[in-house]
């Protein structure tokens, strides 16, 4: 891969890399540093491999780049915590464990919530789901989407929705079923959402 091809690919991947890193660091400076560090390591992987870009996670792959971004961002948070450079809001997150030792936000997350990787994956799944809902809005009639949203989004009973819409129970139920089927097809087309 030439330098210009590398630069083009990097410019395509960088916006997502910045979002991933910021989701972990919650600090713009650390985000930039982490992504730049990942950029350099990714470039070095191309020099070592002399292979075309792959998507399987090997040298020079997009998957490798995002792993490097994640690891660099986690390292940045750990460094900041070790140096005591967490902001006021962040230092409020530090708590004392049962043994009297302070825990970093990363250590707390391990015991009290999703890992940074899981949080990033959940955010990405949510973004993809939002994209699927936008596709659904374009794919079905607005009235049908509204009926479905009232039923599944607001958890209203079908008889109430039918009465309010001036439709029979069976017609309302059928329209909602068609929208659900369409949504299922859209989600199945987005295999990354299924992987989560």
Describe the structure.
The chain is built from ten helices and two strands. A hairpin with a 5-residue loop joins β1 and β2 (102-103). By secondary structure, the protein is mainly α. The protein folds into two domains: 3-113, no CATH class; 119-195, Arc Repressor Mutant, subunit A, CATH 1.10.10.10. 18% of the residues are buried. Mean pLDDT is 78; it is low at 53-58 and 88-101. The protein has helices spanning 3-25, 28-49, 62-82, 88-91, 105-112, 116-139, 142-153, 158-165, 169-189, 191-195, and strands at 95-96, 102-103. A two-stranded antiparallel ribbon has the order 1-2. Helices cover 76% and strands 2% of the residues. The protein is elongated, with a radius of gyration of 23 Å. The longest helix has 24 residues, at 116-139.
